[in-house]
Amino acid sequence: MDKLKTDRKRNEYKKQIVDYLVSRNLRGFRETFLELHPTDQVELFHEIERSLQKQVLLFLSPAEFADLFEGLELEDQLTVFEGLSYQYAVSMFNTMSADDVADFLAEIDTDRSQDILSSMDLEEAKRVEELMAYAPKTAGAIMTKEFVRLSVESTAKDVIAELRETAPDAETIYYLYVIDQQQRLAGVVSLRDLIISTPEMTVEDIMSTQVVSVNEDEDQEDVARLIKEYDFLAVPVVTPDKRLVGIITVDDVIDVLEEETTEDFDEFSASRGATDLSLTAYTAAKKRAPWLIILMFFGLVTANIIGIFENTLEQVVLLAAFMPLIMGTAGNTGTQSLAVAVRGLATGSFERGGVWKTVKRELGTGVMLGVICMLVLMAIIYTFYDNDFTLAFIVGFSLFAALSVAAVIGATVPIIINKFKIDPAVASGPFITTFNDIISLMIYFSIATSLLDRL
Amino acid sequence: MDKLKTDRKRNEYKKQIVDYLVSRNLRGFRETFLELHPTDQVELFHEIERSLQKQVLLFLSPAEFADLFEGLELEDQLTVFEGLSYQYAVSMFNTMSADDVADFLAEIDTDRSQDILSSMDLEEAKRVEELMAYAPKTAGAIMTKEFVRLSVESTAKDVIAELRETAPDAETIYYLYVIDQQQRLAGVVSLRDLIISTPEMTVEDIMSTQVVSVNEDEDQEDVARLIKEYDFLAVPVVTPDKRLVGIITVDDVIDVLEEETTEDFDEFSASRGATDLSLTAYTAAKKRAPWLIILMFFGLVTANIIGIFENTLEQVVLLAAFMPLIMGTAGNTGTQSLAVAVRGLATGSFERGGVWKTVKRELGTGVMLGVICMLVLMAIIYTFYDNDFTLAFIVGFSLFAALSVAAVIGATVPIIINKFKIDPAVASGPFITTFNDIISLMIYFSIATSLLDRL
């Protein structure tokens, strides 16, 4: 079925499944619902009413519901969790992936999560607790503990037999990790390697010992970049003494990249955590207001600076007309440079290219843009404002100076911020634009004031 | 080896390999270089001087160099290509993936690409030509033709034997696609399914017939979203009559997502195609200048509008001081709303949530933000500007009106643009900000003019 057909089919399925739920047809429901891909189950569950959601819980075993629960957004998980019986919840957590359980338990209060952990199977609870101990956004925090471990002596035939037993539990069986007696990572066997070897070959013969692994404390973004660059399907996570503790798969990495992009966007627009469409207007306003108000105070600084030049303005009110043009163009140049820098930081291009090269390039770009815009603007003002060369020169030259500075500020501030690990929110688009506003206006009014007697 | 160690090792390797190249040690070079992952080969090749790059070509066979060539950026590919002998180039293209050959040949002039195609192996040339016929950014254009086809009658044992032969050529063997006699997609067998079945089971017994596929004309972004949502490793591409023509793998999809993100950023900052760090200052300026100049003309419109209110300004010059504050705050609100809309469009959230809901929410957010900022600002102006209530009211109320409008414009313009498939560049951040500037100033000066006699 192609995607269109999938969509149509999904609607038919949905109607059918809702009918089964309403008529309490257990068998009909299970036959249809359990055929669906977990992603479709999640979507359908998300769309139906609360009362029908409860019916779904009654019709599914904790193990069957576990797949669906893993796919839900945190908010939905919390709502559903409130309606679960304690025993159902514990059974469900026992069959979920340890990393998904850890993610969820980290979000409810400690007493309750401790209580649940104490009722869970010992082994699973231990895995979950290990994962919960990692700092957020590290390799350890996003890795999964469900993977296949091999020992060097096994033959290809043994491994295949073993996979028939354990495969359904593992997150991926496309890479199989080989450990030595100290639980240290010794090599990797891809399923591809395994399948093209003869049944009698041992793991030692097949495995590659050149395994790229990441440390458990590694930043999730670096892990994502590594997997992306090398086209890996998974990467093993090790402790400093090389013990294999988990793996990170490519689908987790896609989610990390998406998350980091959203963060970049939020920074770019000073709306951290507020670009989520599911927020209410009130919550969004509450999250966005502090940024706006802080930025408004910078606006008051600008107002004061203009106040200083009130005399100049009083003599030539026309100067006010070009303020938005100068501020706007400088702001746009700064934003373009910021985009270059943010993308460079996100894709790791600076590691190779060097920061100085970028700053020099942006200065060069800013100067060239400044010259072009200056010439165009001077010609227009000279023509349309009574051949007033002094006005044309003041506005044009201020624009040139403002653009040259703005390009450098737009590119360097995020790099500096990143280098010193300061909270990058202060380097976001609006802050840089506001900063550029202040500098451009100071340039503009200083030049205008010094040439005032010629106007 | 962990990542740090990889980096250190890479430097040692690099030094070693450069030494081998300089001393023309063929054997040493090949032993070290061919051990590296293709991604590392590419990086090393990119970093060394032109003369050493030529030495690499002499030391590698066309088939060995093909892997490296596939990984290079287009710009580097073009430079290298100019230095290749015709015969070397043809042999190299014969061993490259058809999709990579198609991507490259689309970038050189038609006469030369036709010439090369006519010298290539017939089968490979045909595959390349088929791929080149697709519109850019469609499933057909990004798919690979190197995949494993199975027929329903084969047994698991047969398939494994077959994989031992053909696997090294295929892009992925983790999903194997089953076709009927009309070449139509009939099912899928994952390597996982294959390995956990008994050797005598037939493909028909093992395969899943519920295959999600995409049409060859499907937009690449939709394909990427599908793979991401369902955590697929690959997805098959079919013609309208269901013939299987290729597959798209998860690593291609990560690149597509990255590409789309970069586009979103470029739009956000009106610097389309210019966020690439490898551009020279001159090229970057050339690409960015048109946007800046167009935006500068909008700035002239603003200058004209302010000119209309010259009388008002002449009477109360202080009004000019608050222009940047009102424009800036409205601009920031608009940008925040734009971020919400762009992210919503990128992640497909609107398909479910509905556009109206978002517009209403943004209006609500804008009004609330407007009220908060108005109250804060009125209090400050009243206190610090000689208890001038009229001034406080003009500035505060204008800010409220400007924010409410800006939030709605920021959210709706990109959605409308997207709906009517207009070039989305006109909905980019700077355009919306400029539009908001004009509206805010008109609100501000209209209110100020009407209350002028009270000031």
UniProtKB/TrEMBL annotation, chains A, B:
Primary location class: membrane
Record-linked Pfam families: CBS (PF00571), MgtE (PF01769), MgtE_N (PF03448)
Keywords: CBS domain, Cell membrane, Magnesium, Membrane, Metal-binding, Transmembrane, Transmembrane helix, Transport
Subcellular location field: Cell membrane; Membrane
Domain of life: Bacteria
Gene3D superfamilies noted in UniProt: CBS-domain, MgtE N-terminal domain-like, SLC41 divalent cation transporters, integral membrane domain
CDD domains named among the record's database cross-references: CBS_pair_Mg_transporter (cd04606)
Transmembrane segment boundaries: 289-309, 315-342, 363-385, 391-417, 429-452
Positions of the CBS domain: 143-206, 207-263
Topological type in the membrane: Multi-pass membrane protein
Described function: Acts as a magnesium transporter.
Subunit structure: Homodimer.
Family: Belongs to the SLC41A transporter family.
Protein name (Swiss-Prot/TrEMBL): Magnesium transporter MgtE
Organism the protein comes from: Shouchella xiaoxiensis
Organism classification: Bacteria, Bacillati, Bacillota, Bacilli, Bacillales
